[in-house]
TrEMBL record:
Pfam families: NTF2. Residues 24-120 form the Nuclear transport factor domain. This is Nuclear transport factor 2 family protein. InterPro entries: NTF2-like_dom_sf, NTF2_dom. It comes from the Bacteria.
Length: 142
């Protein structure tokens, strides 16, 4: 199946994260890894927020798409397992652990998503699970 044949809403059948059934979260990783950043950003609500590591919040689909096009070109996410729970305000919190790989390093990551009842991503935070020393070593050499 080519990326052009992948539904914008449904993840391909072979893409799975243990413990996660929320289609928007599965599509987030699938489109991110395929470099389909406009489709990744379209998973967010109108005022959706992405909080990448070591950065300020990025708000709105257009800003998220622009950020991903600039910063995520050579990054692959390898989500492994996750849990989801319904919060008091009827939103769903999804936590996914795995690895992110760049051309020069790999690091353990926790992704936190807040979804509305329509499965739109309201907020996501990408948290690096590394010691301060490991984080310093992640900076690209000039």
């Amino acid at each position: 199946m080519t990326s052009a044949e992948i539904s914008p809403v449904q993840p391909s059948s072979e893409f799975q994260i243990l413990g996660i059934t929320e289609t928007s979260v599965l599509r987030y990783f699938e489109t991110l890894n395929a470099g389909e950043f406009d489709q990744t950003a379209a998973l967010f609500g109108e005022d959706g927020v992405m909080h990448p590591p070591l950065e300020s919040d990025i708000v709105g689909c257009d800003a998220i798409a622009a950020y991903l096009k600039q910063e995520a070109q050579n990054i692959k996410a390898y989500p492994k397992t996750g849990i989801s729970e319904t919060l008091e305000n009827a939103t769903i919190q999804v936590q996914v652990t795995g690895k992110a790989q760049t051309s020069w390093c790999g690091v353990n990551v926790l992704w936190i998503f807040i979804l509305n009842q329509q499965q739109q991503i309201l907020y996501t935070r990408v948290k690096l699970l590394a010691s301060p020393q490991e984080l310093l070593s992640l900076r690209p050499q000039k």
